[in-house]
Each structure stands twice: as C-alpha cells, then as structure tokens.
What does this fold into?
Amino acid sequence: MITNDFPSEVRYEEVAPPIYRNHCTPVSTGISHRFLLPLSSKRSTDRYAKILIIVAILLALSCVLLAIFTALLFAKLERVRGDLSDYSNTIADRKICFLCAQLNVSQFDPDGKAALKLLDVTLDDNGNDVCCASDARQTKSLFELVYKKQPKTTCLKGTANPETPCDSSLPSPTTTGMSAAHLIAGLQSMGNDADTAHIRNWRTDDVTTYLEGLQLIKDRLVIKDTGLYLVYSQIYFSKNVAATALRSAVLLKHSVYRYNVIYPNSGNQALMDSHGTMIFDPVTAHSALTSFTAAALHLVVGDQIYVTVSNMSLVSGDEKASFLGVVKFE
It folds into this structure.
C-alpha cells in the first residue's frame, strides 16, 4: 500500500544547500593596495639610486678633470719659473759695451784714464778692445766717458729767451772776414778695417774749433772763394795691447782729398797722403801713432775737402788729437 509521505509544501530553504557566509571578514579592495605600495617604493628607490650613481660618476669625472687641469697648470708654472730664472741669469750676465776707441780717453786725461780702468776690457772677434760695464759703478763711468763725446750745448748771448742757460766759457761768435776752419773729430762709427773710411762727425761747437768763410756740408769743408789755402790734418791712432797678445804691426794710411765735378776720377782728387807703421807690443801695453800732413794748395770755388783713413777702429777717442784745418792766405 502506497502511502503519500511527501509534504504538501516544500520551501526553498529546506531544499537548497546551505550557503555559508563569513560575516567577520567583509569583502574589500584594500588587499590590492597593500600589495602595490611596496612595489612603488622599490621603483622610487631604484630611480634615486641611479641618480646618485650618475652624480657620483660626474663628480669623479670632475675630480679627474680638475686633477689634469691642476697638473697642467703646475707644469706651465714650472716652465714660467724656468724661463724667469733663465732671463734673470741672462740679465745678470748682460753688459753694456762700447769699443774703447769710441770713448773719449786721452793719454793726457788722468780722469778719463781712471774711469777707463774701472771698466772690463776684452777683445772682440776682430781684435778690437771692448770696454764693458757690468755693475752700477762701471755703468756710471762708461756713460760719463760717452757723455764727453756728445756735442756741448752752446748758447748765443742776447737770445730772445733770457731763461736759456748759457755757458759763459763759450765766446760770442765774431766775424773777421777771413776764410778759415779748424774742426775736431767727434765720435766715429766703427766699420770694416779692410776698407778706407771717411772721418765723419766733425765738431764745430767746441771752444777750440773755428769756422768762418767756409761751409761744413756732410762732413766736408766747402770752399767759397778761389785762392791759396793752407790745408792741414792730423789723425791720432791708438790701441791698448793685451798682455797675452803677440807682437805685431799694421800699416796705416791717412789721406786728405778734395772733390769737385771738374776733376777726373769721378771728381775725387788726393791732395796729401801720410803712411805709418803702428807696432803692437804687449810689453808697452799701449801703442800709438800720430799722422800729420799739411800743404799750401790752390783751391777753387766748390772744392770739398774731406779726410779718409784706413783701420777706422784704431782712430783714438781723444777728439782733440784728430783734426782738420783750412786757412786762406790773404
């Protein structure tokens, strides 16, 4: 016998499987934030580390470049220091030198001889005496000797400027109507002794000189009136001989010429010649030779009188000892 045991009403809750819920742990998205936050911090740390590495590399490169620059700077400073040291040594060894023949030293001038003894005297490649100054005392003596060679400042009395300093020892210029001249040889330029040279720098400003009725043009006396003239000239040769030098001799020539376009030989005509032998003896320590020549000559307008010598380096620095004179006979 079948019985009907089914209930008359079945509810869903009784048939469906039970659903278990965890009411203590709510569903939330906060779990993803907890996992993402450490990842972002790591990336930032890596980025900062890279920046620090780059900065460190740049600092290292800067230090290397600075070290190289410093080394180069010190090397350059060492070169500059060496150059300055060489220059200072050069300055210390540098001397002021003149040929002794160019200095105004006479055998009869004790002050000049004393000043000359203070200088260092050596020989150049041509065997000429060279007077040098290497300190303040010697330089002072050398410049004093050179200054004596400079033309003296003259002053004409009655000048427009009364404040102009005058040398009362110099006489006022006078006019006598004569044609006469007496010139002394000033400082000469040293040339090649193998060639004949003209005596130049004739001085007319010394108290012992005279010039009237003639003209001095380019170291030549120009005749302005035709007539009979006395022409004379003297050249004084001198040289200090080193104690170690060998005994030797040289032939010297001293000539007086005139130039005019009317004469042959391109207008140059020899008037007088003087020859002499100068002996260099180390025993005497000084050698000298005086060459003098004179003659009465008929000169015409336009004649130019000049003097030549051989071995210009041997011409003495004593300007009073070398001269040229022309006097017209009335």
About this structure: The first helix runs from residue 12 to 15.
